Amino acid sequence: MTTESAFSPLTIGRTHLRNRLVMSAMTRSRATGDGRATADIAEYYRQRTGAGLLVTETTQISTRARSYPTTPGIHSTEQAASWERVAEVVHDAGSAVYLQLFHGGRVGDDSMRGGLAAHAPSAVAAPGKSFTPAGLVDHPVPTAMTDAEIRATIREFAGAARLAVGAGFDGVQLHGANGYLPHQFLGRSSNLRTDDWGGSAANRVRFTVETIRAMADAVGPDRVSLRISPAADVLGVDEEGTEELYGEMLSAVDGVGLAFLDVVEAVGQRELTQRLRKSWSGVLALNPHRDAEPAPPHEVVPDALDSGADLVVLGKPWLANPDLDRRIASGGPYNEPDHTTFYGGTAAGFLDYPALAG
């Protein structure tokens, strides 16, 4: 395919998209201390409405779900109200926007959760360090969730979905990837349970499947998306039997009627992506990482569409290029992202990346 195919329209669920380009969820840590979206956050998304669909940064569903400083939430009416301006400016520009729902599980220091203990499938700490305003600290040993706590967390996802749609979002996305709570249930190393939430592949995918169904019941399946990261060894989650695991998951959710499936592709795993595609009959959004050295976006996008994707999800290119759609259409050039301004700080590295002249 050529880049022109990326600019054809597509309907996902009940939402019409003017092109096949998606801005990925990316944590930027610029919310207020109590988790509200700001005017700068609204402007950040407005600048990037060349994407047919924008997915917001990870947004925690509860105080306990928080893993990082100054990240936004969607578990209070005040937080929900702060997001209304984001949905409004994106819609005014002709694009669609989904809110990504997040629970960090065992990731992040307890100070991020107001002193609440981390909850996870099992009492196994994540490897490495966690960022806090006071510096890097070890991830805590979490408390293994009871059956009642698991079910309560699923209800929190559903409640957050209602708040998001009430704030004007076109839909919501479950962040089931990259080492956070739903992904922790998938891992053999992070999920040592012997009850109905652990052990077999069917039991390890159960948290994701039941959460997706609860969110679909809350706001309608055609407003719900799922993000997964097959074969991603992130934050100590060892999936073990990736293809069986995700085959089980996709067979369980394929008939729900979700708006789309968002796949974060691991480097060198294009064949796995294509095999899993056969288990998914709906719209596929691909965040492509075919090679260790990525090609420029105007080459990545048609390659992903040729591989069977319906939508192409890009992250850092949108972060550094607010007008990425125009740059893809013209074959570049592209701004390089400033890694020192990814998380927290001021408008610098957030709102000041230049657009193409003219």
From TrEMBL:
Pfam families: Oxidored_FMN
Domain NADH:flavin oxidoreductase/NADH oxidase N-terminal per the UniProt entry, residue ranges: 7-332
A GO term, aspect molecular function: oxidoreductase activity
Gene3D superfamilies hit by this protein: Aldolase class I
InterPro entries reported in the protein's UniProt record: Aldolase_TIM (IPR013785), OxRdtase_FMN_N (IPR001155), Oye-like (IPR045247)
Top-rank lineage group of the source organism: Bacteria
Protein name, as recorded: Alkene reductase
Species in which this protein is naturally found: Prauserella cavernicola
